Amino acid sequence: MDLNDQRAVVTGGAGTIGSHVVDQLLDAGAREVVVIDDLSRGRVDNIAEALERAPERVKLVEGDIRDIPLVKKTIEGADLVFHLAALRITRCAAEPRVALEVLVDGTFNIIEASVEAGVKKVVASSTASVYGLAEEFPTTERHHPYNNDTFYGAAKAFNEGMLRSFKAMHDLDYVALRYFNVYGPRMDAHGKYTEVLIRWMERIADGQSPLILGDGLQTMDFVDVRDIARANILAAQADVTDTVYNIATATETSLLELAEALQRVMGSTLPLEFGPARSVNSVTRRLADISAAERDLGWKPTISLEEGLRDLVQWWRTQR
Length: 320
Ligand SMILES: NC(=O)c1ccc[n+]([C@@H]2O[C@H](COP(=O)([O-])OP(=O)(O)OC[C@H]3O[C@@H](n4cnc5c(N)ncnc54)[C@H](O)[C@@H]3O)[C@@H](O)[C@H]2O)c1
Prior knowledge:
Elements: E1 7-11, H1 16-27, E2 32-37, H2 48-53, E3 58-62, H3 68-75, E4 80-83, H4 89-94, H5 96-117, E5 121-127, H6 151-170, E6 174-179, E7 181-183, H7 196-205, E8 211-213, E9 219-220, E10 222-224, H8 225-237, E11 243-247, E12 253-254, H9 255-266, E13 273-275, H10 291-297, H11 305-319
Parallel strand pairs: 1-2, 1-4, 2-3, 4-5, 5-6, 6-11, 7-10, 8-13
Antiparallel strand pairs: 9-12
Helix pairs in contact: 1-8, 3-5, 5-6, 7-9, 9-11
The protein binds nicotinamide-adenine-dinucleotide.
Nicotinamide-adenine-dinucleotide binds at residues 12, 14-18, 36-42, 64-66, 84-88, 102, 106, 125, 127, 179, 181-182, 188.
Pfam families: Epimerase
Protein name: SDR family NAD(P)-dependent oxidoreductase
Domain NAD-dependent epimerase/dehydratase: 9-248
């Protein structure tokens, strides 16, 4: 599909990943990009550049995906829907009823409105959390979802199921992308659930060592937010439907290695500091198989961890 001249709706488009999707939709020539975001975590600042660059093509609807009439009105006339609005995993655990309303009912509203509007494709944000602690590494999309024990992962797995059922019932085309550990410019630096990277950057900038809670041996599969956004664009363009893809770098990095990489980028040589683990993290390892996305979407990560961290630090300095 050629994105030129398409009207796209981006839910959660003022957030970390969504705002990069907005940028890349403009690059791809989308006629109109409508962001629907309640700004609970997203910021107008994240799309300020896009609004400035193409004021006639970008529109912000400040509203909630739980608001059915608003969702229907926003999606009416859309060719594509990129569905990113969601709550973070920690907020889902703290407030599961709100999570049910936003992640499950909100997603239902988006899907129903997409069917009614005759949307050509929904590109939905899923997560590696659906796997829980995987039993096989690298983990493929065929891995079962029964090791997940989080409400967030359960809601995302249900969202994938809802999309499949609407494909079967109403032939709504969709692709769901299971992102692994996302980082990069526009990460929420001010929120209550501040990412560990932000905390470490603050400490390093203040002349302290990054503080590792626990042994730091837990591994993750980090992927830069701009590569994630590109996967969204390719998922819309590619001739694929009714399927899910892992989006990661297929590289295992421990928290210790991450802290050291960040220190290198920020020029710190202090020894790492350790503290007691705050909570038990049942997911001790992540490593994705990304061959399906490579084969079907023509997607490959292009930004190395050091390069991504350099850009993250540079952006974060402008925010301080
Ligand atoms: N960041 C990650 O590591 C990661 C990993 C896997 C999956 N994901 C998924 O990717 C998507 C985007 O994540 P992100 O990192 O950009 O998060 P984010 O919090 O930066 O963006 C989510 C956006 O949704 C908005 N939002 C929340 N509730 C809303 C509501 N009820 N109505 C309208 N807007 C609402 C927020 O204001 C925010 O701008 C989410 O679906 C998330 O679950 C993220």
